[in-house]
Protein 1
Amino acid sequence: MGRYVIRRLLQVIPVLLGATLLIFFVVFALPGDPIASLSGDKRTPPHIAAELTARYHLDDPFLVQYGHYLAGLLRGDFGETFSGVRVSEIVAGRFQISLNLALTALVMEAVIGVGLGFYAALRRGRAQDTLVLAATLLLISVPTLVTGFVLQLLLGVELRRSTGIDFFPISGAFDGWRSYLLPGFVLAGTSIAYLTRLTRTTLAEVLRADYVRTAVAKGLPRRRIVGRHALRNALVPVVTYLGADLGTLMGSAVITETIFNLPGLGQELFRSIYERQQPVVVGIVTLLVLVYVLANLVVDLLYAVLDPRIRYE
Amino acid sequence: MSSAAPAKGAPPNTRRARHARSSRPPGRGARTARPAGLWRDAWHDLRRRPLFAVSAVLIAVILVMAAAPGLFTSVDPYDAAGCVLGEARGGPSAAHWFGTDNQGCDTYARTVYGARNSVLVGLSTTVLTALAGGLLGLVAGFRGGWLDAVLSRVTEVFFAIPSVLGALLILSVFRTGTVWTVTLALAVLAWPMTFRIMRASVITARGQDYVVAARGLGASAGRLMFRHILPNAIAPLIVVSTINLGVFIAAEAGLSFLGLGVQSPDITWGLMIADARARFHEAAGPLLFPAGLLSVTVLAFIMLGDAVRDALDPKLR
């Protein structure tokens, strides 16, 4: 196990290096002079421009700049913006909101997806099964852009207008966990559908396995067969999907964040691109790459817990 | 096994074999010594699926709409003279079936004209990713070795980058968004997916008996790859590409909505949604109509992909 963990950690390094290099390269190519835009319409005094250029290594070749950034990153330093604010300060609060949103989505995904998939698998081929499949097709096809606005209108505005129930805030993160209910569901939409399908297929497959037949032959109650023997084994791919999805959810939340006015990482990245705050842009994307890589790492290690047949040499 | 058989008959999908099959009406009555291939089987199966029929009709309508929007409306939404500010946010009427937007323009005509940019982005991104990812996957899977190792590591890097944010970054490098920059941004981030699918399917195919036989007969690498392996390994790529077409159309709408995709005065569904957003709670029509057509379009392609997958992959039945 220990050796596997080390090998797996070593595999993470080239991915991180490659991804940061790629992001740095794109951000390097962004048009515009960040120093000039600091003073707005006026010209930046030459000695200040020279000092800032030296301070942020802006005259160095691309790879040298990347080296400076990487050296900072290794010390846990995400750098600072061209106006001297620490990137980590800007990102911290934003990260919390994005994480809340992604975790809400992940919980909804797990509960609804596994629940529906479980329900459909036990009724394979019947009307309820077909209905669930049709619902997943719809969930996959309707873009976030559409579900976001439609749910905002139906649950956030019309529901309040007609019944007075004011349960789903439609803008901002001011209402605690309730702020994340609608955006969380919207963000999770496609994933719920995929997870339902995945749970349904795997569970149906497992239910046909030899050991389930043996359990039936032993005379075990059905609840125990499905719950202990089938469900646990069917959960391995489901957990993989969920783990890998955390990074994806955080990275794809920008449209949901925009619709519901949640000041998360996506919104901040968007703003930083417009304001040419390259250090913030690189910092946010690097952070999201880290989340993705670490979530996948944890999932790989969880395998052994869920499926005792899997052994790491 | 006779020595001549594998070269002629074994790869069931050489161009000649397919041509011979398609010149005859497919069906039970066809008298043929050749076994029904994967493609004919799939086509036969596909034609009887209601899911396929529905999605094919929808896609046909959308494609006509993209090619000749004038057939659906006599209003030219690119002509600003047709917009009357005094009639802004009017509800559905005989003159304006879907009502009017914030500028007093006809929502129906704009929605119809918006189809072209969406379909263009969807088609060109799909073709680009299928070609780039497919070819690289074919070569990597067939050759193996260092080339495969390097390309596989590169795809791992791309997978770690969040795709929407990555696309936003690439688009912000170009100062103006057009159909082609959106296509490029989406394709740069999506080719690793087609690469992986093609590579996995080529690796399965390259160990098959007919490939070994063809290799034994002295077939060149190019011939092995394109005449023997490709026709038998391309099915998963086709399925994923069909589904991706819908996904790319949705992605274009998202990027245009955020303001970095296709720019006004070009009409796209994403831009229409962004424009209608500010007054959404007073006048939902200008947002809901493009959103509805967008959803139907994405649904049609994903349904088609589902149907094609069911037909091509008998294991899932």
Protein 2
Amino acid sequence: MKDVLTAISHKGKQIEWIDECIASGTMKDVFFSPDKSYVVGFYRDKDKFDARAKDRLQTIVGVYKDRIIDGPNGDYWEKLLCWPYDTVEYRGCFGVVVPTYRKDFFFSHGSINNDFLGIKGKEKNGKWFASAKNQNRFLDTREKGDLLSYLRISILLSRATKRLHAGGLAHSDLSYNNVLIDPEGRNACIIDIDGLVVPGKYPPDVMGTPDFVAPEVIKTKHLPLGDPNRILPSILTDRHALSVLIYMYLLFRHPLKGGKIYDQDPVKDEEMAMGHKALFIEHFSDKSNRPNLNDVHPAELPYADVDKLPYTILGPYLKELFDKAFIDGLHDPQKRPTANEWEDALIKTVDLLQPCLNPHCSHKWFVFDNKLAPKCPYCNTPYTEALPVLNFYSSRSKGNYLPDNYRLMIYNNQYLYQWHTNRLVFPNEKLADPQKKPVGYFVKYQGKWVLVNQNLPDLYDVTNKKEIPIGKYVILEDNGQILLDKANGGRLVLVQMVNN
Amino acid sequence: MRRLPVYLLLDTSGSMKGEPIQAVNVGLQALISSLRKDPHALDTVYISIITFDKEVKECLPLTELSNVQLTEVTCPDSGPTHLGDALEVLCKKVDKEIILSTPDHKGDWMPLLFIMTDGKPSDLMKFKEMAPKLKSKNFGNVIACGAGPKAKEEYLKQLTNNVVLLDNMDSAAFQAYFKWVSDVVNQGSKSAGVTEDLELPPAPEELNIVI
């Protein structure tokens, strides 16, 4: 049995930890509390840990924790942000007290063949899921989740990043090492928050993790610290890292690692490919960095094949943001999409999902591209039935409806929610519990698609000039118009039937 | 995805017989098992193990981490330490196995080399011939470990600036060493500091770093 050490924290609490290091990061050695409800991370390098670093940490566990975790919707943020809550000093070493990760973020099945890698019980580091090889060859199917899992994980990460940025904070080291994800339970959590950067106040002490460092940071890393042209992590570089994370979780490949060779020396080559020469592998006109399938490990297929699985399979909203992130904004940080834009586009994309008809499909869902003869891009199973699409319009002034650039693809047993029926409702952290209940659902009934009214007092079939009371249904017909909500921001739908 | 080749050059001369070689075997198992729990290593790492006593043996040809099957490393009852010969075999293997970048193909990462010995080279002529050749090869990092009281660091320093010493040759010391090896291999996937100096991960207490 190892000793249990104790110290009184700066907030006056008794902090205990078992004197056995459970993990070592770049900066810290981490120790479990005896009941494993929290960990204490001690900073190794006493010299680098100066008064300013202490001040920064105390601001994070103090003011910022009060504002974000103990502020409005704090319960929600606490699940997404593994926030340090206290600091402690022991024999000249400074430590930070952080809650233990929830048990969903540890593998319950691990790898295939009876967990031959022995990872059961280990943390679900995001890299396990963002790599085609790990997905194809190692992970137990029960750990992998489906396309909806990765969309939801991306939504949660965008939302958590949005919250940090809204408070003026930059994470500064977003990467799959600092994000735990649980595809099975569709959850995500940002960790290593003690490195937060408060712009103008505390400079970052890390550049970031390879694969996620923004091109301008790599391009200027040869300059000394303090040089006005040296670029360090910030909210703008977080935006790059977030875009890379989302691309990797949804497509299992890196957006900048393609076939182009910049230098024979692999270190220089990598630095150029991620730095000043960085080029999107799926750039619409400059195709010089498309992956060379001869250089790809067979286990990385089909994900490494951008012809077979181009990013456009994720639908129009995400395509637009990937273009902003990796074409317009790659070398022009101000043009990068914000976390908020990602959250919106991802949520809208969820409404374009269709379940794949193949019960063995790896992704279970695909984004319907509004084309004729749709088929699942992952397993090529065609979709064979007529498919209703609802195009949303909303009222800006009385009787005047404008398109919302938002549509909903219908599948059997799909639910309709308030964020579909009213433009002013968003499915985010502010959603009240009653708003989380469906207001209607769609089924195929006697060969026709119908919307069943569960809780839509205003539901009105405009085409046939008929009110649809709660408990009754309306048939979806091509070009039919249905009013969902008469209130301010209420939506009207135009039905489109796609025949296959 | 580039490969990261990792070469291990292990001393199996007579003096390693007994607890030390047992500890090395346990350490190797632990190393492979720990690397396999790392999703970054699984994506890139390839391992090769070469042993040397009076003969040089390729125990494990360069193999993708997930396919590695370790066979027990054994050593003779007594005999010399032909480190020079081992370096020669290694250089030939590296020339043959490492995929270099060409204008059309991406090559490997620069390989890592870990050398471990508990004595000094018996084939000094060959060693002196091979030391500069080794340096001319493009290794990302060469780390030499002198194990136990008889290890001579002056020879290891001719191969690399990264020399570590293991005071003891018990299983705890070897275990700590191989754990550290796995940290060094994984270092490339971790956060990088804003200052440029590339440091090795902190060594365990049992290891002394000689620069």
